[in-house]
Amino acid sequence: MAEQSSRDAKLVQYLNEAYGKEKELETALQAHIAMTTKPPYKKRLQQHLKETKGHARQVERRIKQLGGKAELVPAPGPVGDAASAVTAAASKAVAAAKGPLHASRGTGENEKMLKNAKTEYSDEFEEIAHYTAIETLADTVGDKDTAKLARGIRREEERMAKFLESQIPQLTKAVAREEIPAAERRRARSSSGSRS
């Protein structure tokens, strides 16, 4: 087997960063789905979990095609292999621990969903950044297959971010209805209207 080129090694590095994020999000999405009670939101999270698992498989396949190994944190050499295994296990443990932590945040059901949606929104933009970098690197070094893969996944992440962006105001309003008495909400609306 020929030694991996610098070009392919850099592509594998970036792909592994995205792969690690996809694997982390699989665990987080499963926990968030279990906590979500709004059917349209839950359905979209379930769809995105399938997309996320598919993204991880596609990225893993591309890493192998480039002569690399899919791992959560790439590190070269025998020490790197051991460190990668430990880091992979630690990353999975952290992701698994976030589920119960996310279940306890917030004062009510809607606030928990709102906090999860804000976390998911942030995660989507991290993924968009990963895939934008991969696409740009691949375009720069003439790897059309990796660029196409990154572009396709990035577009799916952008669609999910747009969905979450629409959920955050809805969930925030639900928190207000759930936790702030109607009289206080009305009084706040009428006083803000009289200021203008």
Description:
The structure is a single chain. With 196 residues, the chain is mainly α. The protein has a single domain (6-195), classed as Ferritin, core subunit, four-helix bundle (Ferritin), CATH 1.20.1260.10. Helices cover 85% and strands 0% of the residues. Helix 1 runs antiparallel to helix 4 and helix 2 packs antiparallel against helix 5. The protein starts with 5 loop residues before the first helix and ends with a helix. The model is unreliable at 74-84 and 99-104 (pLDDT under 50).
What gross morphology would you assign?
Answer: elongated
Number of contiguous helices: 6
Approximate strand percentage: under 5%
CATH architecture descriptor text: Up-down Bundle
CATH class: Mainly Alpha
Structural category: mainly alpha
Write down the secondary-structure element order: HHHHHH
Strand elements, count: 0
CATH topology: Ferritin
CATH superfamily: Ferritin, core subunit, four-helix bundle
The main β sheet shows up as: none
- Averaged pLDDT: 85
Distance between the termini: 73 Å
Keywords:
196 residues, mainly alpha, Ferritin, 6 helices, elongated
Secondary structure layout:
Elements: H1 6-35, H2 39-65, H3 77-104, H4 109-140, H5 144-179, H6 182-195
Helix pairs in contact: 1-2, 1-3, 1-4, 2-5, 4-5
Write a brief caption for the model.
The protein has 196 residues and is mostly helical. The chain is 85% helix and 0% strand.
